Amino acid sequence: MPRKAVEISPNKMIEKTLILIKPDAVQREIIGKILSRFEQKGLKIVGIKMIQLTEELLKKHYAHVYGQDFFAELHDFMISTPIVAVVLEGSNAIEMVRTMAGTSHNQIGTIRGDFADSRQRNLIHTSDSAENAAEEIPRFFAKNEIFDYEKVLWKYSYSKKDFQGHN
User: Which of 61, 105, 125, 166 is catalytic?
Assistant: First the structure.
């Protein structure tokens, strides 16, 4: 099970979150552009791999929409090519990643706004809460596929006080 969010100050949390870079981003060859945005923001990649979704994994991940009218198209799309699964870690990572991804292809300045052409083909999945991240990360990553290492840049991004209590 992934480490839970650790409070490091009243306004900062070190969290892990999952992103899935979907088939449209893979086919458009923008995996690096998407990842670079998160890296440039200071988030730490602690797990990354390219995988082909299985029926079982797809049904578990999309259980909340399984059986709805649009699921068949979503299913075919998500298994059309491999995806890239990534675990990111950082201060308030869940909220930061969701903000950076955006909610619409019309939201200029976000990943979806800058790169997506469609509401349905929206390039990226992001965990929407700490609870969902805690469920989603082990769905895609074994414990030994998530790495804990020092990100030297954080010494220049945050004060020591920000990291009090971080393991």
Answer: 125
Active site residue 166: no
What string of pLDDT tens digits covers the 167 residues of the chain?
444 544 444 445 789 999 999 999 999 999 999 999 999 999 999 999 999 999 999 999 988 888 888 888 889 999 999 999 999 999 899 999 999 999 888 899 999 999 998 777 889 999 999 999 999 999 999 999 999 999 988 888 877 766 555 54
Give the right CATH number for 16-146 from 3.30.70.141, 3.40.190.10, 3.30.1640.10, 3.40.50.300: 3.30.70.141
3-state secondary structure 101-116: HCCCCCCCCCHHHHHC
